[in-house]
Automatic annotation (TrEMBL):
SUPFAM superfamilies named in the record: Globin-like (SSF46458)
InterPro entries reported in the protein's UniProt record: Globin-like_sf (IPR009050), Globin/Proto (IPR012292)
Lineage of the organism: Bacteria, Pseudomonadati, Bacteroidota, Flavobacteriia, Flavobacteriales
Annotated GO MF terms: heme binding; oxygen binding
Protein name: Sec-independent protein translocase TatC
Entry-linked CDD domains: TrHb3_P
Length: 123
């Protein structure tokens, strides 16, 4: 297996991740029924976010914390939701990639999730 090296790798990772995540009824409803994401529109935005986070390149300009605060106001995001999201993310990374960037993206994901949980708990 190869490492995550570019945006195309991120796009593959995110497509596979959401394909898996949206099949899990314990969390999929948040994306389909609550957030009502338009996945073809959402995936490039997520790729922008991870490209900036992992490679320090790209054009991401949104505020992910605000997005999740707004979502949490509609549906309480629980510890279990974060655990489920992280487990699917880790599994998807591990199925497709290995190397420094693969480990880095998993570390960044847990760091971001931890900060989000703390900030959501304070609201």
């Amino acid at each position: 297996m190869k490492d995550i090296e570019n945006r195309q790798d991120l796009e593959l990772l995110l497509a596979e991740f959401y394909n898996t995540l949206l099949k899990d009824p314990s969390i999929s409803y948040i994306f389909t029924d609550v957030a009502k994401i338009d996945l073809p529109h959402h995936l490039p935005i997520l790729a922008d976010f991870w490209e900036l986070s992992l490679f320090h390149t790209g054009d991401y300009r949104n505020n992910p914390m605000k997005v999740h605060l707004d979502l949490n106001a509609k549906e309480k995001l629980t510890e279990q939701h974060f655990e489920t999201w992280l487990n699917h993310f880790y599994d998807t990374v591990d199925r497709h990639f290995e190397g420094l960037n693969a480990e880095k993206i998993k570390t960044r994901a847990v760091s971001i999730a931890t900060v989000m949980k703390i900030k959501l708990a304070a609201t």
